[in-house]
Specification:
This protein is α+β, with helices and mostly antiparallel strands and about 240 residues long. The protein is built from 4 helices and 16 strands.
Length: about 240
């Protein structure tokens, strides 16, 4: 006998048991499978409408499947969705604004729902810096939330904060000392978001797309020019 062959006849069900019981069990198994398959088909056949942000709602059961109270609730939910959609549309700025993704280190400049420009950026490294005595600490993260551009500066001069000198192991100079001021390191433009946070250029374009900054948002030269073209004082910046 070859491997895999059986010494029982087909009439015996292939397992040495009476054929009648095997046929009955096959009938029951087939019936069960048919019922399960039918239920799945009914569920998957419901029309599905896609709401905002990929949220899906089962809104329209097959005719006759919903009670009058259910249909009334469905209409109420549909009206609520339309109301929320209008409110969401009203919240979207019509003038150009920027969205910054600190996870993927990408940005979008949009007007309404239209994308005007997009690209890579660099955001906070989440590095923790302490003074030798431990009295001062800095966590280099990019803040999240909704901001407005407070000022746009052409050819900005960087006033180095205390952490620069601590990080480099140098004595911290007086607030207005000349060694605090440095030209040419922020690019052609800087967008002031408040509390010392800027959107500015970079001397290290190879690091765009990586979390390497001390909290500011860095853009490449061409992206910075596009930002200057679209974003003025008062423009909204959403960071998440």
């Amino acid at each position: 006998m070859k491997s895999g062959e059986s010494n029982t006849s087909p009439a015996a069900g292939g397992n040495g048991k009476p054929a009648g019981k095997s046929v009955f069990r096959g009938f029951v198994a087939g019936l069960s499978f048919g019922l399960i398959a039918g239920l799945l088909i009914i569920l998957l056949a419901h029309p599905v409408r896609e709401g905002y942000d990929g949220i899906r709602f089962l809104l329209s059961p097959p005719d006759g499947a919903a009670e009058p109270a259910d249909r009334k609730e469905i209409r109420r939910v549909e009206r609520r969705i339309r109301t929320l959609r209008i409110r969401l549309d009203n919240l979207i700025p019509r003038s150009p604004y920027m969205i910054i993704n600190t996870i993927d280190h990408r940005f979008l400049i949009k007007s309404g729902r239209k994308i005007l420009h997009e690209g890579f950026c660099s955001t906070g490294s989440y590095t923790l810096l302490k003074t030798h005595d431990g009295e001062q600490t800095w966590l280099f993260k990019t803040p999240r939330g909704m901001f407005r551009v407070r000022d746009v500066v052409h050819k900005p001069v960087w006033r180095m904060p205390d952490w620069v000198f601590v990080e480099e192991g140098r004595p911290v100079p007086a607030p207005d000392a000349r060694e605090r001021f440095e030209r040419g390191v922020l690019g052609d433009y800087a967008f002031d978001l408040g509390n010392g946070y800027l959107i500015h250029g970079t001397l290290y374009p190879r690091f765009l797309g990586l979390p390497v900054t001390h909290g500011c948002v860095r853009l490449g030269d061409e992206d910075l020019k596009k930002a200057y073209t679209y974003l003025g004082v008062g423009a909204r910046v959403f960071i998440y």
